[in-house]
Design goal:
This protein is α+β, with helices and mostly antiparallel strands. The protein contains 4 helices and 6 strands, in the order αααββαββββ. Helix content is about 30%, strand content about 40%. The strands form 2 sheets. Strands 3-4-5-6 form a 4-stranded antiparallel sheet.
Length: about 190
């Protein structure tokens, strides 16, 4: 419901005409866009928990993967790290989620916390705004007996893109700001 309210604010509150004279983010628009970006990151956090949960039926997990992919720009990658190796591997969004479903644990818990902007939205030459949201991810994997066999905490940076778009509603051209997630980069992995 919140997403619908944000979308309505973004669509109807920000440029009812199709003219793109308002390509700059006013403080009010920026606040609404920031809220939508943070909401999309929180949605992603929920989707990751559902996909990683071994009790989630396969068909439901695949449906959630489709929804989660819609949050991202095409070509985005997600980083994966481990305390057991030094390298960080990057996977396409879909590949990341499919690997998450197949993790070799009986139970997986993934929590995101301290979700906040670390870089304010900066306008790019093409009119797109780009920012970074930092999150901390706590991962726990359990065996068949319910014993914790692996855990880590990873600091990740999520690139956020805000683009001006237009659509036609009721014969009128409507301008709005759209928020999409980009690459998710691993910054640090600890116990």
């Amino acid at each position: 419901m919140k997403k619908i309210a944000y979308l309505l604010i973004l669509v109807f509150g920000f440029g009812i005409t199709g003219a793109f004279a308002q390509d700059n983010l006013s403080p009010e628009r920026k606040q609404a866009v920031d809220s939508l970006a943070l909401e999309k990151v929180r949605d992603l956090s929920k989707y990751i928990s559902i996909i990683g949960n071994k009790e989630t039926p396969w068909s439901e997990a695949n449906r959630v993967i489709d929804r989660a992919e819609e949050l991202f720009m095409q070509g985005s990658e997600m980083g994966v790290s481990s305390l057991n190796r030094t390298e960080i591997n990057y996977y396409s969004v879909r590949n990341y989620f499919e690997r998450l479903m197949r993790l070799n644990y009986n139970k997986v818990e993934i929590d995101w916390y301290n979700i906040e902007y670390v870089s304010d939205l900066q306008r790019q030459p093409d009119g797109t705004y780009v920012g970074v949201i930092t999150i901390f991810q706590r991962f726990r994997g359990y065996d068949k007996e319910g014993k914790l066999v692996y855990q880590d905490t990873t600091k990740k940076d999520i690139t956020v893109y805000v683009k001006r778009k237009e659509t036609q509603i009721g014969g009128r051209l409507i301008g709005f700001w759209d928020v999409l997630l980009g690459d998710i980069r691993v910054k640090e992995t600890t116990i």
